[in-house]
Amino acid sequence: MEHYKKLKDFTERVNIEFQQEFADEQLLATELFSLYFEAAEIANQQFVLKRETLELISRTFNTFYAGWNLIVGGLLTQGMILLRDTIECITYVKLFEVDEEFREEWGEGKEFFPRDIQKRLKKNMISLPKQKRFYKIFSQNWAHPSKKGTVSHVTDWYPTGLEHRVLFHFGSVKVTPRTRFIAVAALSLMFGTISFLWTEVFPINKDANHTWYQKLTSAQKKMEMIELKSDKELEIVIKKQYENYQSILSDQYAAMEAEARALFEENQSKESNHPSGGL
Q: Residues 6 or more apart from 54 whose CB is under 8 A from it?
């Protein structure tokens, strides 16, 4: 029980840290979840969505919700891994609407490889959702244990130019710029998916649901403000990193120069103390 209590306390602490640093992001996530729920209900009444479509629409929401909660808990890489799944889900949803054979085979439990989906999309001349361009990045940077996939929880730290430490974060949101960047990426994917599903694939009637569109526009403005904040924060971090690297190189050069000078003086001393030979 003692170990569990420590884990529980740790989870609560990380969530408090996130709430303090990322209140705007959390608020927008809540609004996007609400928009998703509302849109799904409206679309199902307007279009009478089929079971297969509703299955993937519900899976997409659950994946977003689970991924976001991992990010909130400081598990950045793990949260982003889940979000890759949403790109596949909405691609299937679009394909369902034009390829009844695919829908039936999928509904019967047939498994499909990504190459199979690519062939069907090409055959039906279906343009991919904008989110699809992130799929490869998600796979390389998050889904597989590549070097890039460790970036979100490993920090190189140089207390001085001659001292290098590596910090390994176990569920932490203390590296604020990095966490905000990942949180913004997740929110952007959520917003893009909502727009794709409910304004392109199943466009909700604007006249009958004007309020929903107003909320979507409001969410977009908040999304843009948060993205701008994240970009400025990253710009400051990159500038600071550049200054740190310059300082590190300067310290290392000074140390090398001091070492070379000491070595030279030592050799000079040995030569001056060496007895001269004579006949």
A: 40, 44
DSSP 160-216: ETTEEEEEE-SS---SHHHHHHHHHHHHHHHHHHHHHIIIIISPPPTTTTHHHHHHH
For residue 166, give both structure tokens.
């590596």
Residue 153 gets which letter from DSSP? G
Global pTM reads 0.79
What are the boundaries of each domain within the chain? 2-228
* Residue with token string 């977009």: 220
Farthest-apart Cα atoms in the chain, separation: 115
Predicted confidence band of residue 279 (pLDDT cuts 50, 70, 90): very low
CB 126 within 8 A of CB 94: yes
* Cβ partners under 8 Å of residue 160, min gap 6: 251
Instruction: Please say whether the beta carbons of 79 and 68 come within 8 A.
Output: yes
Residue type, 196: F
3-state secondary structure of 104: helix
